[in-house]
Amino acid sequence: MEPTTTITDVTILDADQQLKRFELTPKDIANNLREKYAGLTISGLADKEGYRAVSEARSEIRQKRLAVEKTRKALTEDAVAYQRKINAYAKELTELITPIEDHLAAELDRYEAEKERVKREKAEAEAKRVAGLSKMLLEAGCQFDGMRYFYRDMEVLNQHLPAMDEEALRIFADAVQTMKAKDDAEKAEKEARQKKAANRQSFLVTEGLMMFLTNNDPDLFYMSDSEWELLVEALRQQQEYVNAEKRRREQEQADMLRKMQEQEAALKAADEEKAKLQEEARKALFAGRKAQIEAIGYTYDPVRKGFSLYFDGVVGVFLANAEVEASDEEKFPERLAFFRQLYTEKKTESEQRKAQAEAAAKAAMEKAEADAKAKAEAEAKQQARYKKEFAIYREMEILDLERGLITAQNQVVDIIVYLSKGTGIAQQFVPELVAVKEKLHTILDNAKKAAKP
Asked: Hey, how many other C-beta atoms are within 10 angstroms of the C-beta on 102?
């Protein structure tokens, strides 16, 4: 057990005497500790003995450094007078010891760093190896879902991948690759068949052969090229037969339609010729009847398509073309006689209405003249009465005006008299009031003249 030093053990004699309390001198460090420990090294990770020796040496050196520090503190507590010398001595010892400790610490740090590097490189190599295994599985055709590598019902858990034997894993990858190659080949063959079947179907649609394909024909997907050629040839023959039959039926229909059109054209021409002859006969008959009707006083109106009988500027009778054309040849003379009698009756009625109108107009004129004379006499009497009443009313107004003007004139005279008796300021208004009085007199004279009839 190392000796301990306390402040109570220090006898205050002199500083040199107290330095012996450190129980260690620079000479001891240089001759013993440096020589013993400064050359210690660790040759590598496998140098366990070197690591143990350096570790124990560093522990011993550290204990001595701590003892020095402890003694320094104890001595400085006894007296402030010893502090500087003790601190300097302790610093000297520390400076001698620190390089040794730093060397030993650097060796230990280098050892730990090397150990960490080897560990890191080993982990990186393992990660690279596992990544290579994962790449091998993926390239073989496996899928990865975050937990396993699988293809169909074959799988490898991701957590087991680092511990698996590489050869066994390679055999697994080869099996997956073989199975996937087989599946890809089957898939490619199926896609090629589907594409060929689609092309064949498109060809049949384009060539118009699809409609002749039946359920008894081979499947386009599984059909060989020779079978396909035989099928196309058979479908073309069937198509040619159907098209020929279609053309034959179309020709028969066209011939039948042409014959029907020729028959219809012949019938139409006959009907048109018959209608033309009938129209010409109708026009000739109408022209003759028209001349006879116009001869008895009727006028033909092409707009209204009929005959008008005018009396006093208006149509008295109107005979439509249909009525003229409706009579047959035997009855038309009777109708013509009826039209002539109707003309005579309408003319007599017109003359009678004219005579009655003239008599009525004459009586109305005489009555109007009598009424106008009576009205004029009444208006003259009324006008005389109005003039008399207006003269009386006007005379009363003039009298009222005269009374008002006389009153105003008297008031002005009174004011003039009053102001004439006043001061000079009041008298200056007298001329103006005299002018007012004269103006009132003039207005009164004019009013009297206006009152005379």
From this structure: 10
